[in-house]
# Entry
Amino acid sequence: MAKEEVRRLQPEIISEDQDCHAAVKALSDYKPSDSAYAKAALQTASDDLDDAHEKETQAEAAWKAARDRAVKAEWTFHNLILGTKTQVKAQYGADSDEIKSVGLKKKSEYKRPTRQPKTISLPKAA
# Structure
Protein backbone atom coordinates (compact mmCIF):
# COMPACT_ATOMS: atom_id res chain seq x y z
CA MET A 1 0.00 0.00 0.00
CA ALA A 2 0.99 3.63 -0.36
CA LYS A 3 3.12 5.38 2.24
CA GLU A 4 1.90 8.95 1.88
CA GLU A 5 -1.81 8.96 1.20
CA VAL A 6 -2.18 12.71 1.82
CA ARG A 7 -0.46 13.97 -1.34
CA ARG A 8 -1.98 14.01 -4.82
CA LEU A 9 -1.17 11.24 -7.26
CA GLN A 10 0.45 12.14 -10.54
CA PRO A 11 -1.99 12.22 -13.49
CA GLU A 12 0.06 9.50 -15.23
CA ILE A 13 -0.50 7.12 -12.32
CA ILE A 14 -4.26 7.77 -12.33
CA SER A 15 -4.36 7.20 -16.07
CA GLU A 16 -2.52 3.88 -15.68
CA ASP A 17 -4.95 2.87 -12.92
CA GLN A 18 -7.92 3.67 -15.15
CA ASP A 19 -6.37 1.60 -17.95
CA CYS A 20 -5.93 -1.29 -15.53
CA HIS A 21 -9.56 -0.98 -14.42
CA ALA A 22 -10.72 -1.09 -18.04
CA ALA A 23 -8.63 -4.21 -18.60
CA VAL A 24 -10.05 -5.91 -15.50
CA LYS A 25 -13.61 -5.10 -16.64
CA ALA A 26 -12.86 -7.03 -19.83
CA LEU A 27 -11.78 -10.15 -17.90
CA SER A 28 -14.84 -12.39 -17.80
CA ASP A 29 -13.41 -14.91 -15.34
CA TYR A 30 -11.92 -12.44 -12.80
CA LYS A 31 -12.81 -13.66 -9.30
CA PRO A 32 -10.36 -12.40 -6.63
CA SER A 33 -9.93 -14.34 -3.40
CA ASP A 34 -10.33 -11.08 -1.44
CA SER A 35 -13.76 -9.59 -2.14
CA ALA A 36 -12.41 -6.08 -1.44
CA TYR A 37 -10.91 -6.21 -4.96
CA ALA A 38 -14.03 -7.42 -6.78
CA LYS A 39 -15.22 -5.77 -9.99
CA ALA A 40 -18.07 -4.09 -8.11
CA ALA A 41 -15.62 -2.52 -5.62
CA LEU A 42 -13.41 -1.33 -8.48
CA GLN A 43 -16.42 0.17 -10.29
CA THR A 44 -17.62 1.92 -7.13
CA ALA A 45 -14.15 3.38 -6.50
CA SER A 46 -13.90 4.48 -10.12
CA ASP A 47 -17.31 6.16 -9.94
CA ASP A 48 -16.32 7.87 -6.68
CA LEU A 49 -13.10 9.11 -8.31
CA ASP A 50 -14.98 10.52 -11.29
CA ASP A 51 -17.50 12.19 -8.98
CA ALA A 52 -14.73 13.66 -6.81
CA HIS A 53 -12.89 15.04 -9.85
CA GLU A 54 -16.12 16.52 -11.20
CA LYS A 55 -16.92 18.21 -7.88
CA GLU A 56 -13.34 19.47 -7.60
CA THR A 57 -13.55 20.99 -11.08
CA GLN A 58 -16.86 22.65 -10.25
CA ALA A 59 -15.50 23.98 -6.96
CA GLU A 60 -12.41 25.31 -8.72
CA ALA A 61 -14.59 27.07 -11.29
CA ALA A 62 -16.71 28.56 -8.51
CA TRP A 63 -13.56 29.69 -6.67
CA LYS A 64 -12.20 31.33 -9.83
CA ALA A 65 -15.52 33.10 -10.42
CA ALA A 66 -15.59 34.33 -6.82
CA ARG A 67 -11.99 35.51 -7.15
CA ASP A 68 -12.84 37.37 -10.37
CA ARG A 69 -15.77 39.07 -8.61
CA ALA A 70 -13.52 40.06 -5.71
CA VAL A 71 -10.84 41.45 -8.05
CA LYS A 72 -13.44 43.45 -9.95
CA ALA A 73 -14.87 44.82 -6.69
CA GLU A 74 -11.36 45.74 -5.47
CA TRP A 75 -10.58 47.65 -8.66
CA THR A 76 -13.96 49.39 -8.68
CA PHE A 77 -13.43 50.52 -5.09
CA HIS A 78 -9.82 51.56 -5.75
CA ASN A 79 -10.75 53.61 -8.82
CA LEU A 80 -13.54 55.32 -6.88
CA ILE A 81 -11.09 56.20 -4.10
CA LEU A 82 -8.63 57.67 -6.63
CA GLY A 83 -11.42 59.78 -8.11
CA THR A 84 -12.53 60.82 -4.63
CA LYS A 85 -9.01 62.05 -3.82
CA THR A 86 -9.06 64.12 -7.00
CA GLN A 87 -12.43 65.55 -6.05
CA VAL A 88 -11.24 66.43 -2.53
CA LYS A 89 -8.22 68.17 -4.03
CA ALA A 90 -10.45 70.11 -6.44
CA GLN A 91 -12.97 71.10 -3.77
CA TYR A 92 -10.68 72.00 -0.87
CA GLY A 93 -7.44 72.98 -2.62
CA ALA A 94 -3.99 71.44 -2.94
CA ASP A 95 -2.75 72.83 0.40
CA SER A 96 -5.73 72.08 2.66
CA ASP A 97 -5.95 69.91 5.75
CA GLU A 98 -8.61 67.81 4.01
CA ILE A 99 -5.98 66.68 1.47
CA LYS A 100 -3.91 65.35 4.35
CA SER A 101 -6.91 63.49 5.79
CA VAL A 102 -7.42 61.46 2.59
CA GLY A 103 -3.78 60.39 2.47
CA LEU A 104 -2.27 62.93 0.08
CA LYS A 105 0.55 65.37 0.71
CA LYS A 106 -0.12 69.06 0.94
CA LYS A 107 1.45 71.16 -1.77
CA SER A 108 3.56 72.95 0.84
CA GLU A 109 5.01 69.65 2.11
CA TYR A 110 6.82 68.90 -1.13
CA LYS A 111 10.51 69.79 -1.18
CA ARG A 112 11.36 72.77 -3.33
CA PRO A 113 13.86 72.14 -6.08
CA THR A 114 17.34 73.42 -5.41
CA ARG A 115 19.98 74.32 -7.91
CA GLN A 116 22.91 72.04 -8.16
CA PRO A 117 26.22 73.79 -8.63
CA LYS A 118 27.94 73.01 -11.89
CA THR A 119 30.92 70.79 -11.46
CA ILE A 120 33.90 71.40 -13.63
CA SER A 121 35.72 68.30 -14.61
CA LEU A 122 39.43 68.69 -15.06
CA PRO A 123 41.27 66.58 -17.62
CA LYS A 124 43.29 63.75 -16.13
CA ALA A 125 47.01 64.03 -16.14
CA ALA A 126 48.71 61.38 -18.17
Summary: The radius of gyration is 34 Å. The chain has a mean pLDDT of 92. The chain has one domain: 11-108. Helices lie at 11-26, 39-92, 97-101.
